[in-house]
Amino acid sequence: MEATITLTVDGRAETVTVDTRTSLLDALRDRLGNTSPKKGCDHGQCGACTVLLDGRRMLSCLALAVAHDGADVVTARGLADGDRLHAIQEAFIDHDALQCGYCTPGQVCSAVGMLDEAAGGSPSHVTADLTAERGLGDLDDDEIRERMSGNLCRCGAYVNIVAAIREVVGTTVDAQATTAAR
Amino acid sequence: MKPFDYQRATTPDGAVALVSDRPGAVYLAGGTNLVDHLRLGIVGPDLLVDVNRLPLDEVGATEDGGLRIGANVRNSDLAAHPAIRRDYPMLAQALLAGASGQIRNAATTAGNLLQRTRCVYFQDVTTPCNKRDPGSGCTAIGGYTRYHAILGASEHCIAVHPSDMAVAMVALDATVAVLGRNGERSIPVEELHRLPGDHPERDTVLEHGDLITAVVLPPPLGAGWRCTYRKVRDRASYAFALVSVAAAIRVEDGRVADSRISLGGVAHKPWRAVKAEDALRGAVVGDESFAAAAGAELAAASPVEGNEFKVPMARRTIVSVLRELAGQSGESR
Questions:
Q1: ipTM for the whole predicted complex goes beyond 0.95
Q2: Residue B331 pLDDT
């Protein structure tokens, strides 16, 4: 069975007819030519296919395209503002947070989604006090590691991935403090 | 993957009618388990009824002071909900111990409950499995059993239900609201899942077409209770439990006045440790009572070759959690 769906992908409206079995990942890659999200395990275990789906980080391999008609999808490709990379992308480069790069688009999307969650006060498994008000400033390395655990990196760039995210957390918190002080 | 039709349900009753009328129809919620199983060829429905846009995504107070959690509330939203964090911290902890950030954003409350009880052989269509293919045999027995059951298993199946959330809900005496062909009914979460017996292909007591619309939590345990959820696993994060314990106790005058204990990772269903609770009632607080309670529950344990370690692991985890809860310090809440 086929279905025609409309997606906004990285800011662009796309209409595509897909078999109902098509994952969002395959729709993006094979039908819309957006190879930014990667197919790692295709079983929801590695995180390489992570995109921002209606603003939240999701595994596009476990999403059926037909079920997301009308959705807004942002891939790592769409995070940049023209030639200006997203702060997370810049930090990944600065910190050498990758080797082969295959997991990187998923890592980057996951990190962006994760920072939004943390800024919104969401707790994690390693959050000691579930009832305390929390924000980005509370993201220590343990929190970053726990919250990024859905993204595997077989090259083992984890140490630098944590450092890259830590830097973005720091500059964001500093910028907020400066703005608040004005 | 076998071809299937897709329909988006617009009302709960409409969803129930669509699935009830078609033997090969299944519900699609977050899809984190179903889509994987479609791809693996474990299931082959001919119709997916998408319930994601049904208005079942609210968390609201019930008349008796409990909470009604809509079936579609995402695991991450439930874990972050202020009332859950404040009044049911054991449930928030359990949710946050499960899966990954991405999966918690997609997975729903009802979908988490209805994820399949499973094991690696269930997921490998090249091997016999009584759950996937009734009567074909169990490859796990005599195979790799590290993640398998030590309680309530049968000669036909030793798979475990992997949910963390459900373990806490069982300890909290939660119920599910189920909409079926003949109207609504309520089932305790503890009675939702089955032991494998002679029919490991059936994970739950639900009938074809039944739709979980909500999970209802009783009023919070309240003053004097302390509770926690602890998960023991091979990796620090994003791994199934080897053993998990949801526990709450109320201590009065140095004795356990009341307790709630359930276990994950040990059985075909979230396991309410009634024998341990009975043993604890009125017992003097201390390791001796805690070990006796754990021993009472685990006396019936029947591990298979390769997962014997789970029995002492479960015993020690129960004792450790109770010790933490009974003490005035520690990380419990």
A1: yes
A2: 42
Distance of alpha carbon A113 from alpha carbon B17, whole angstroms? 37
Q: Cβ contacts of residue B44 below 8 Å, gap of 6+?
A: B1, B2, B4, B24, B38
Which residue in this structure is represented by tokens 């479960």?
B314
Out of B8, B39, B86, the one facing A42 most closely (by C-beta) is B39
Same-domain status, A107 and A35: no
Q: What residues in A contact B5, CB-CB < 8 Å?
A: 1, 20
pLDDT by residue, tens only, chain A of 182 residues = 999 999 999 999 999 999 999 999 999 999 999 999 999 999 999 999 999 999 999 999 999 999 999 999 999 999 999 899 999 999 999 999 999 999 999 999 999 999 999 999 999 999 999 999 889 999 999 999 999 999 999 999 999 999 999 999 999 999 988 888 87
DSSP code of B309?
Answer: T
| B 105-134 residues inside an 8 A Cβ radius of A | 105-106
A1 touching chain B per CB within 8 A: yes
Interface test with B, best of A49, A59, A112, A142 (most B CBs within 10 A): A59
Cβ distance B48 to A120 less than 8 Å, yes or no, reads no
User: B228: phi > 0 → left, psi -120 to 50 → alpha, else beta; which?
Assistant: beta
Instruction: With CA atoms as reference, report the closest residue to A53 among A63, A66, A45.
Output: A63
Q: For residue range B73-113, what is the model confidence (pLDDT) as tens digits?
A: 999 999 999 999 999 999 999 999 999 999 999 999 999 99
At B212, which amino acid appears? I
Tell me the CATH number at A96.
Answer: 1.10.150.120
Tell me the CATH number at A13: 3.10.20.30
Residue-range definition of the domain harbouring residue A67: 2-79
| Chain B residue with Cα closest to A51 | B102
CA pair distance B174, B168, nearest whole angstrom: 9
What is the maximal distance between C-alpha atoms in chain B?
Answer: 63
Q: Which domains does chain B have, with CATH numbers?
A: 5-50 (3.30.43), 225-326 (3.30.390.50)
